[in-house]
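Consider the tokenized backbone below.
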């Protein structure tokens, strides 16, 4: 897993409020996972899945 450079975005706000530790993103790219940290310091795993799955 790679460290994500994401900073302040709506997903991070949701992670902070919900207390979950895993998120799924559908996008135009390969299957991958990222360890992310919100601006508030909450760590979570982002699972990236291609649109065709």
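A designed sequence for it:
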């Amino acid at each position: 897993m790679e460290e994500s450079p994401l900073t302040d975005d709506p997903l991070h706000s949701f992670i902070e409020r919900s207390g979950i530790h895993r998120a799924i993103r559908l996008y135009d790219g390969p299957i991958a996972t990222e360890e992310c940290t919100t601006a508030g310091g909450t760590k979570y795993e982002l699972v990236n899945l291609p649109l065709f799955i």
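Strands lie at 2-3, 22-27, 32-37, 43-50.
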